[in-house]
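PROTEIN DESIGN WORKSHEET
SECTION A - STRUCTURE
LENGTH: 698
TOKENS:
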């Protein structure tokens, strides 16, 4: 339910505040502790069996590889010890030839793994060292991935899907080596199952291996000095992938006459300049994750061009035959390949290398229908989308990074968990997402209203793309900027917004403060209309107090007479909330003064409700609720507002009058409770379990 969801959310936020989710202290995925589980297995003399990702059909897939599908028939899960006499985890160091594609369409992932082998420091983060099939083997392994802003440690057992005694998916050219197959399994676990890995961009996996940010480059429109940019990126340990667009699905992964494969993910592993007849020739080295099928044009393995360069250059380029890796000229590369993706790395805790000069910040957010999912700027609710402020305080040192000599700003908007969502719906796809950058000159961090946002000047805007992440690089003058991420149509989703800059650029979410104008209710009985006393006596009866049931009967009678207000009737629960708020003597009923205070409130609530029922439907939309709360004296931030909408709005995001009254009454009651217990005005309270339960049950 909602309570467990928000309890978990609060607990996770507390963990993040304590440093959990960093490279030094990765989050334990599914709560599984590698060392503790391994110790248990060793003490019990058993091999680990992962109940969170069991060796059965649903771990394979949901459609093409789903249970009882043709592709899953005959699959047997086996441990490496059952597949060969002497299995090894990594044999002779992890190399690019350790990665060969199987029956799954995840060449994009394999290209990223191949790029990973070129960077020992990065590889050691993703594949923690010290794992083997030798002493201490317990059938358990673990890997670390960056997932939407935090590092997670993922445990797997070593039961791998096979058919006819051969690994079904990723395998090493050395059949006794299993690190790449187990890495693929861990990544499949994070994403829900193996089949969710079918189809993707190399850069997505590169980000998940590094926590870096990816830039996609159309090779038809790159600048003239782009080769130098590629060289520079390689020197900074950036990971790179390239591909050739397929004109149709039928052409995907088809081999051209040049032996290049369309619709297939390659990794870029080198960029060098050699001398031919006194002239510089720019060369690119590319790796096919299949481990075979190579380019057969100029600078291919056996081409005549190799005889035109010096022995020194030949030694520098280290080319070998038919290993899936090949060289080609940069001009041919641009002619045949369509795009090149570059993953820029972060200067995190474990890498202080100065060549990673990026500063980075990240903010998490949600789009929630009815509250913070405003849609694109064509929607009147656009302003309700989350808003973030970034301060560009210093210009770049290096003018090559910013053509205008200003501040480089790389913005990445990434939506979360869409791969995993495919398991619930095979038609699930990424939502079209976009972000807009505005000039902003205010010192506050308060969420802007519709009118305030409309007054800002838009300086940059990404395209709407239905992909996991939209990344754009800008060069902007020093100053403050507002970034608004959105989906094309209002829809639920969660995201992480990442900001990469050359200099420090503080980034923060724009949100309302939590506050309320809830002073003591003054009511003078002597100034009360005598007719009101008569009405009260009729409602209260002989005991001169209004019970919960008498109260809801009266309220329902009042609202039933109003044609312009819709309600499905005040509930007993709402009646109890009202009585709890106003009952001063502990009788669980309302006396005359208390009832008069309530009547004054109800009239005020009715006026506010009518003011914000803009379409005169008798209900208030959840987006209108935020402004109505402000008029009623309450300020809440996005997180609290989402909870209110979840609790009070119907499936069409409408709120009727009785729900509105209950919302205001409960807010006032909670604010008053907190204020009473916050004796020192610190904004924090402490209570024991009895106090917590009694207050929560009111």
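SECTION B - SEQUENCE
RESIDUE ASSIGNMENT:
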């Amino acid at each position: 339910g909602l309570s467990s969801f928000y309890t978990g959310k609060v607990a996770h936020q507390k963990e993040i505040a304590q440093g959990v989710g960093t490279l030094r202290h990765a989050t334990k995925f599914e709560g599984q502790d590698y060392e503790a589980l391994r110790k248990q297995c060793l003490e019990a003399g058993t091999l680990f069996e992962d109940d969170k990702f069991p060796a059965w059909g649903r771990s394979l897939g949901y459609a093409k590889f789903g249970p009882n599908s043709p592709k899953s028939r005959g699959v047997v899960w086996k441990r490496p010890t059952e597949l060969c006499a002497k299995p090894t985890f990594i044999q002779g160091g992890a190399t690019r030839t350790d990665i060969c594609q199987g029956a799954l369409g995840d060449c994009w992932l394999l290209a990223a793994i191949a790029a990973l082998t070129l960077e020992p420091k990065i590889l050691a983060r993703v594949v923690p060292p010290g794992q083997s099939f030798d002493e201490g083997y317990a059938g358990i392994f673990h890997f670390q991935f960056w997932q939407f802003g935090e590092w997670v440690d993922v445990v797997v057992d070593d039961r791998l899907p096979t058919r006819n005694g051969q690994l079904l998916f990723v395998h090493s050219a050395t059949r006794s080596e299993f690190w790449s197959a187990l890495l693929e399994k861990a990544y499949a676990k994070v994403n829900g199952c193996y089949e969710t890995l079918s189809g993707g961009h190399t850069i997505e996996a590169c980000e998940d291996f590094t926590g870096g940010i990816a830039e996609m480059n159309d090779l038809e429109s790159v600048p003239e000095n782009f080769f130098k940019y590629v060289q520079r990126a390689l020197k900074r340990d950036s990971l790179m992938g390239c591909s050739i667009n397929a004109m149709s699905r039928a052409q995907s992964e088809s081999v051209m006459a040049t032996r290049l494969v369309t619709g297939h993910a390659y990794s870029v592993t080198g960029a060098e300049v050699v001398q031919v007849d006194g002239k510089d020739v720019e060369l690119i080295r590319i790796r096919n994750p299949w481990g075979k099928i190579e380019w057969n044009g100029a600078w291919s393995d056996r081409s005549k061009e190799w005889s035109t360069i010096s022995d020194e250059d030949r030694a520098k380029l280290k080319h070998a035959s038919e290993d899936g890796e090949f060289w080609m000229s940069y001009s041919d590369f641009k002619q045949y390949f369509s795009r090149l993706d570059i993953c820029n790395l972060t200067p995190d805790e474990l890498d202080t290398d100065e060549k990673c000069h990026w500063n980075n910040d990240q903010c998490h957010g949600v789009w929630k229908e009815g509250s913070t999912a405003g849609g694109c700027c064509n929607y009147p609710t656009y302003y309700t989308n989350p808003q973030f402020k970034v301060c560009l305080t210093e210009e770049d040192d290096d003018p090559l990074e910013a053509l205008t000599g200003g501040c480089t700003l790389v913005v990445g908007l990434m939506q979360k968990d869409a791969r995993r969502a495919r398991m619930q719906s095979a038609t699930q796809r990424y939502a079209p997402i976009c972000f807009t950058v505005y000039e902003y000159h205010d010192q506050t961090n308060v969420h802007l209203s519709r009118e305030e946002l409309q007054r800002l000047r838009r300086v940059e805007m990404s395209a709407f793309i239905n992909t996991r992440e939209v990344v754009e690089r800008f060069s902007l003058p020093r100053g403050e900027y507002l970034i608004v991420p959105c989906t094309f149509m209002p829809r639920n989703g969660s995201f992480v917004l990442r900001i990469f800059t050359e200099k420090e650029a503080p980034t923060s979410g724009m949100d309302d403060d939590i506050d309320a104008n809830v002073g003591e209710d003054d009511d003078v009985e002597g100034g009360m209309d005598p007719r009101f006393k008569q009405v009260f006596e009729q409602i209260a009866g002989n005991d001169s107090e209004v019970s919960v049931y008498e109260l809801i009967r009266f309220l329902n009678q009042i609202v039933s007479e109003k044609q312009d207000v819709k309600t499905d009737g005040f509930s007993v629960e709402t009646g109890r909330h009202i009585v709890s708020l106003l009952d001063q003597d502990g009788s669980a009923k309302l006396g005359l003064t208390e009832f008069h205070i309530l009547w004054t409130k109800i009239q005020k609530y009715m006026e506010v409700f009518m003011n914000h029922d803009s379409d005169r439907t008798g209900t208030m939309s959840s987006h209108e609720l935020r402004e109505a709360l402000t008029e009623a004296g309450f300020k809440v931030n996005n997180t609290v507002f989402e909870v209110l909408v979840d609790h009070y709005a119907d499936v069409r995001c409408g709120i009727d009058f009785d729900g509105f009254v209950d919302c205001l009454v409960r807010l006032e009651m909670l604010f008053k409770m907190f204020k009473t217990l916050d004796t020192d005005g610190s904004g924090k309270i402490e209570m024991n379990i009895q106090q917590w339960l009694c207050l929560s049950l009111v």
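SECTION C - NOTES
Residues 2-210 form one domain.
Residues 592-612 form the longest helix (21 residues).
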